[in-house]
Amino acid sequence: MMLFGKIIILNFNVVLVIKMENGSFNIIMFSGTADKLIPLGVLTQTAANMGVPVRIFVTGWAMTVFKKDGPKNANRISKEFEDVAPMLMKGLQDMKAPSWYDMLKSAKEIGDVKIYACSLMSEALKLKSLQDFDPIVDDIIGAASFMQMSAGGQVIFI
Amino acid sequence: MAVINVDSRGSACPGPVTDLVKAYKRANNGDTIELLATDPGIKADAKAWCDRTGNELLGIEENNGEYKVKILVKSKK
After folding, report:
1. Does B50 qualify as catalytic in the annotation?
2. Mind telling me how many Å the CA of A42 is from chain B's nearest CA?
3. Residues of A with Cβ-Cβ distance to B21 under 8 angstroms
4. Measured between beta carbons, which residues in chain A are less than 8 angstroms from residue B18?
């Protein structure tokens, strides 16, 4: 048991070392509502500003907003925040804040940012090829590929 | 040793830093970037960006809700 415990700690240290060397920011984008897409845009553009590579794995409910002609229909708000959302959305509009989509585009212009669609969900939605997605999507990949590219970096699930 | 002026007034976070990065991409070492912004986040963010990229924050002047950020470009490869 003791030996087993030591091995785990050792592995943990190894993971930390790799994490610092990788330095990438990886986002599993699951939610498809505007209240999650806006922070996706802000975080991605910020990471690009700071020279941090970003890899976004689009899956779950986010799939439909990344398909062809999808982004312009992404105005949904999570049910639990629908009372405060109009005030926030109007505030952003008054500030002429760019949309989450424009933020992702800016991020791709200035930094190392790639957006991938989940192959399982693509199949489930009958989205057969890259042409079925918005041009902002770089490729369709499996979860193993995302695991591999994000290993050691920061991973967040939105 | 050029001075590159960037007007980012009216743009909210993270827009001003993106404007800064765009100017930085066409700058040379020794150039100074002068960024005008109204987003109050720029005070901390300009410093964070300089710390991250190895460029030098020469100073930030604040005047009636407007910020003038001066950065010396020195980390271009």
Report:
1. no
2. 7
3. 48-49, 110-111
4. 45, 48-49, 106, 110
Among B8, B9, B18, B25, the residue to mutate for chain A (most A Cβ within 10 A):
B18
CB contact under 8 A, A98 and B52: no
CA A153-B73-B45 angle, 5° bins? 50
Best of B8, B21, B52 to disrupt the A interface (most A CBs within 10 Å) is B21
pLDDT above 80 (res A10): no
The CATH number assigned to the domain with range B3-72 reads 3.30.110.40
From the candidate CATH numbers 3.10.20.320, 3.30.43.20, 3.30.505.50, 3.40.1260.10, the one assigned to the domain spanning A21-26+62-158: 3.40.1260.10
Q: Where are the beta strands (DSSP E) in A18-132?
A: 25-29, 54-58, 113-118
Helices A34-49 and B15-25 pack at an angle, to 10 degrees, of: 30
Spans of all domains in chain A? 21-26+62-158
Q: Who among A95, A97, A110 is closest to B18 (CB)?
A: A110
Q: What is the pLDDT of residues B19-45, one digit of tens each?
A: 999 999 999 999 999 999 999 999 999
* The predicted structure's pLDDT at residue A71: 86
ipTM of the complex: 0.88
C-alpha span between B32 and B74 (Å, rounded):
9
Distance from CA of B14 to the nearest CA of A (A): 6
- What is d(CA A99, CA A103) in angstroms, rounded to the nearest whole number? 6
**Beta-strand pair B32-37/B56-63:** unpaired
